[in-house]
Design goal:
It is a multi-pass membrane protein. Keywords: Amino-acid transport, Cell membrane, Membrane, Transmembrane, Transmembrane helix, Transport. It is found in: Cell membrane. The chain is mainly α. The protein is about 75% helix and about 5% strand. It has a single domain, classed as Orthogonal Bundle (ABC transporter involved in vitamin B12 uptake, BtuC), CATH 1.10.3470. The chain is built from 12 helices and 4 strands; from the N terminus they run ααααβαββααααβααα. The strands form 2 sheets. A two-stranded antiparallel ribbon has the order 1-4. Strands 2-3 form a two-stranded antiparallel ribbon. Helix 2 crosses helix 10 and helix 7 packs across helix 9. The longest helix is centred in the first third of the chain and has 31 residues.
Length: about 290
């Protein structure tokens, strides 16, 4: 029973990290129709920026940890906004070019990060309370798991409130449905779409800092490894569905944890699940069928 509880909660923590990355992917695709393959670069740069600032303040302190999250969120948001403004804005109706540009940016970013920080993972000392565990029904669960889960819940609630309760959220959803009509009303849809990219980058930035603390290191390949599962989660949940991404994150991560522990084939099972979903329900668990 203790093992079951431990695997379940750590699976939820891993799912929280997947969601923080997948939420930005889902938001950008659902509202703008863009598959952003450079999303992992936002995460990686934010993780390194958070680590650089945090280690100067002391990553082994609570204040250093909090500041690293704030810096990571800001860097991720800025990088995403610049990417949309400089590269993506001119390619909204050119999907092949979108893929080529974002894939190229992703590869170039990894090479740049390796040139600056090296290709090997950089391990660091975390705040003492993050390295400690909390007892849950006899299972000792790392505190980083609970931090990741809490952050994912806050991001999900914040995104839903933003899209449904704010003026810009309504403009963005209206612009997706009928961009020309919203533009005719004198509203700058381009600015709203830049905001979507910015919010997606911010979520990725938070995920990058939390992932580095979860695993205990930063690496140029950190974003790429998480991006693979984030794309799987996004497809399984339904492209463009935040709720679907949340559900799929939990399902994928928990299944992965249990399968890895008992049989060691967690990644294979996740890919198999993706194949089954695409065959049985191509639009994903909570996605909408194309007209």
């Amino acid at each position: 029973m203790t093992t079951f509880i431990l695997l379940l909660i750590t699976g939820l923590g891993l799912g929280a990290l997947y969601f923080l990355v997948a939420s930005g992917l889902s938001l950008i695709y659902g509202l703008m129709g863009i598959l952003n393959f450079a999303h992992g670069a936002f995460l990686t740069l934010a993780a390194f920026a958070g680590w650089e600032v945090g280690r100067r303040m002391g990553l082994d302190t609570t204040s250093g940890f909090v500041v690293s999250i704030v810096v990571g969120a800001l860097v991720g948001a800025l990088f995403a906004a610049l990417t949309e403004f400089v590269l993506v804005r001119r390619l909204y109706e050119r999907h092949i070019e979108q893929v080529l540009v974002t894939v190229g940016l992703s590869l170039a970013s990894v090479a740049l990060f390796e040139g600056i920080w090296g290709s090997d993972p950089v391990y660091f000392q975390r705040a003492p309370w993050l390295t400690q565990t909390t007892n849950v029904l006899g299972a000792s669960v790392g505190n980083t798991v609970f931090v990741a889960i809490g952050a994912a819940v806050l991001v999900l609630v914040g995104l839903l409130l933003f899209l449904n309760k704010t003026r810009y959220g309504l403009i963005i959803r209206a612009g997706v449905e009928n961009r020309s009509m919203v533009t005719a009303l004198g509203i700058d849809v381009r600015r709203a779409f830049t905001l979507v990219f910015t919010i997606g980058g911010m979520a990725a930035g938070i995920g990058g800092v939390l992932a580095s603390n979860y695993f205990g290191y930063v690496s140029p390949l950190l974003g790429g490894s998480l991006l693979i599962f984030a794309f799987i989660v996004t497809v399984i949940g339904g492209l463009g569905s935040l709720a679907g991404a949340a559900v799929a994150s939990v399902v994928v991560a928990v299944l992965q944890q249990f399968t890895n522990y008992y049989w060691g084939y967690g990644d294979f099972i996740v890919v198999l699940l993706l194949a089954v979903v695409l065959l049985v329900r191509p639009q994903g668990l909570m996605g909408r069928k194309a007209a």
